[in-house]
């Protein structure tokens, strides 16, 4: 029964996660005038992305003339703004094989203004860049963003006059260092009238579009967006975790420039099909129409809500927020996290009290559950880092962009390989083999740690994690195994992590706070049904939590891996630990140990195979040219 519930709930969680990470169906060309249509946007994309159009190229001039005509046809007041390329941009273009002299070392922005009913109010800006890197048609990056803006402007006009001005900024030289955005916000007369910005980007060729960044102190803006995004096709993908992480990353988009000037707004992008990023195959034919629909529909609803609001959102405390299965967004104040943690502690305490009275739960059993969680987390990081190395050298975008783009092409196989490796380790934990064969497990992690340090380069963090993983593998287990001990031990571990992160970074703490609350609620309900966890019905709360919580976490894990999976594959170990938070009570008895280990071995072999074969499935450009 437990085995069937375990594999059944995990399978359903995976299927639900896959469903929630799909882009919506693109709307046809005959969609209602007030709606966004990917088919209509594709007409522009096919013209814009006919060929690569880096700064200074003849195609660049052709695209600019085309966009000038399109903005004029839409009834906007159109102008151009030229500004000097920075010395760094000139060098970057020269290194890529472009000719900055052909553009007179200038970036040329296109600006369109659609007047609103009250022109004294702050304006709303829709922004995307129209230049590409050398060698890529840029159907996604950022022709999709530009075309989505044109289609959104058409739909906004079909909905009737707005309260305030809409400013369209199609920037130049974004690929060379955000020069076009700096030129506009550095001196254009309209810059001080901009009250909110919606920026559109892409890193790849498809997938759901995420709202991954906001302005600072953006609580009211998020509240407006969550209401607007509910009207968008396919809902939205958005978490305060992404905004928190992106704020601390060295990456930048055009949105970085107004954000640093204190202007609020939203940044939207899709990052699926990463093999198309800055690549020759980023053509209109290869572009995911559903991604265009999702990006444009969200941009339309967000911009329309801003344009028609009585006043633009003021600055306010950042909120904790996340989408649920991509369909709606839950948001709350940062301090609410402490209330949710207190509720989780009360529910977990109730479950422990019932289990102590009904099943003889001891503190030692809970302690072993805590060690299980720490072992899985540290060992998972080491295992995933080791399997990741099979896909190729660790990337360093600044020092080796070729390695970076090569690994992007391998990312889908790397993600599948990492997920299988994490599942293999989870099955080892659930089988109880960690305590039955401590020397074998400890030796395996010692070897994996050596591989990571030798092949991937010495890292004191990896060394420390490896030592802990080996030590916990060899730790003597004196207390008897207990389903309650393992479950409540994991809940206690994640609860401590949640408290620490709630104190340090509440916007990111939801990754621990929400799952631990769901797990504690499931544990309390199970304890109420049967403190001994022997009746099949008492396992249903854990199975349902695994299905719902697991699907939500797998969806988040997918976007995390696409974002940082090349350099931080161990991030999936944390997601896998949180899924185990729900699935732990479903661990089968000793009679299923052999079957679980065979399944773990199969998953690990498949995961290693996928990471290793990624080099053949997505070779480097040099290798690809040599293939018959």
UniProtKB/TrEMBL annotation:
Main location per the UniProt record: membrane
Origin: domain of life: Bacteria
Transmembrane helix as UniProt keyword: yes
Pfam families in UniProt: Peptidase_M28
Parts of the chain that traverse the membrane: 335-353, 374-391, 411-433, 445-472, 484-501, 508-529, 556-583, 595-618
Topology with respect to the bilayer: Multi-pass membrane protein
InterPro entries with a match to the protein in the record: ArgE/DapE_CS, M28_fam, Peptidase_M28
Localization: Vacuole membrane
Signal peptide stretch: 1-23
Keywords of this entry: Glycoprotein, Hydrolase, Membrane, Signal, Transmembrane, Transmembrane helix, Vacuole
Domain Peptidase M28 span(s) in chain numbering: 109-301
Gene3D superfamilies (alphabetical): Zn peptidases
PANTHER family for the chain: METALLOPEPTIDASE M28 FAMILY MEMBER, VACUOLAR MEMBRANE PROTEASE
Main function: May be involved in vacuolar sorting and osmoregulation.
Record family assignment: Belongs to the peptidase M28 family.
Protein name, entry field: Vacuolar membrane protease
Source organism per UniProt: Brevundimonas olei
């Amino acid at each position: 029964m437990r085995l069937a519930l375990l594999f059944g709930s995990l399978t359903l969680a995976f299927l639900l996660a896959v469903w929630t990470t799909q882009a919506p169906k693109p709307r046809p060309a005959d969609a209602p005038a007030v709606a966004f249509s990917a088919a209509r946007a594709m007409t522009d994309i096919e013209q814009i992305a006919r060929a690569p159009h880096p700064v200074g190229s003849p195609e660049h001039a052709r695209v600019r003339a085309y966009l000038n005509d399109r903005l004029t046809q839409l009834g906007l007041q159109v102008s151009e703004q030229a500004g000097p390329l920075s010395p760094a941009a000139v060098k970057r273009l020269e290194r890529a094989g472009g000719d900055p002299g052909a553009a007179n070392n200038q970036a040329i922005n296109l600006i369109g203004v659609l007047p609103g009913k009250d022109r004294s109010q702050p304006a709303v800006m829709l922004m995307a860049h129209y230049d590409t890197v050398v060698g890529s048609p840029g159907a996604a990056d950022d022709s999709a963003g530009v075309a989505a803006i044109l289609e959104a402007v058409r739909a906004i006009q079909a909905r009737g006059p707005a309260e305030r001005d809409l400013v369209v900024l199609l920037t130049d030289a974004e690929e060379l260092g955000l020069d076009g955005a700096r030129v506009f916000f550095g001196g254009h007369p309209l810059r001080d009238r901009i009250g909110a910005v919606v920026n559109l980007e892409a890193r790849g060729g498809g997938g759901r579009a995420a709202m991954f960044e906001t302005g600072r102190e953006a609580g009211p803006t998020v509240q407006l967006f969550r209401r607007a995004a509910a009207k968008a096709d396919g809902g939205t993908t958005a978490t305060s975790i992404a905004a928190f992480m992106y704020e601390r990353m060295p990456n930048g988009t055009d949105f970085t420039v107004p954000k640093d000037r204190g202007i609020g707004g939203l940044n939207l992008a899709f990052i699926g099909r990463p093999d198309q990023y800055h690549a020759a195959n980023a053509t209109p034919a290869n572009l995911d129409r559903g991604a265009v629909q999702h990006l444009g529909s969200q941009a339309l609803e967000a911009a329309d809500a801003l344009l028609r609001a009585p006043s633009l959102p003021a600055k306010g405390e950042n909120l904790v927020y996340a989408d649920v299965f991509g369909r709606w967004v839950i948001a709350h104040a940062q301090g609410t996290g402490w209330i949710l943690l207190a509720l989780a502690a009360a529910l977990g305490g109730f479950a422990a009290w019932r289990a102590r009275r009904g099943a003889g739960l001891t503190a030692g059993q809970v302690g072993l559950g805590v060690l299980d969680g720490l072992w899985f987390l540290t060992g998972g990081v080491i295992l995933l880092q080791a399997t990741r190395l099979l896909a190729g050298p660790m990337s360093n975008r600044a020092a080796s962009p070729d390695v970076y783009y090569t690994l992007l092409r391998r990312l889908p196989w790397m993600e599948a390989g990492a997920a299988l490796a994490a599942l293999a380790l989870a099955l080892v934990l659930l089988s109880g083999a960690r305590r039955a064969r401590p020397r074998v497990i400890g030796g395996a992690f010692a070897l994996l740690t050596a591989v990571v340090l030798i092949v991937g380069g010495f890292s004191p963090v990896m060394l420390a994690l490896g030592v802990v993983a080996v030590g916990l593998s060899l730790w003597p287990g004196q207390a008897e195994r207990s389903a309650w001990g393992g479950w409540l031990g994991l809940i206690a571990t994640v609860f401590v992590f949640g408290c620490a992160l709630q104190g340090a970074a509440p916007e990111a703490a939801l990754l621990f706070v929400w799952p631990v609350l769901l797990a504690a609620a499931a544990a309390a309900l199970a304890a109420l049904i049967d403190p001994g966890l022997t009746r099949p019905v008492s396992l249903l709360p854990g199975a349902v939590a695994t299905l719902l919580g697991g699907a939500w976490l797998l969806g988040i894990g997918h976007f995390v891996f696409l974002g940082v999976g090349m350099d931080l594959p161990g991030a999936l170990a944390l997601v896998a630990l949180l899924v185990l938070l729900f699935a732990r009570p479903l661990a089968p008895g000793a009679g299923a140990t052999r079957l679980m280990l065979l399944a773990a071995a199969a998953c690990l072999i498949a995961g290693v195979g996928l990471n290793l074969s990624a080099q053949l499935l997505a070779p480097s450009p040099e290798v690809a040219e040599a293939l018959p």
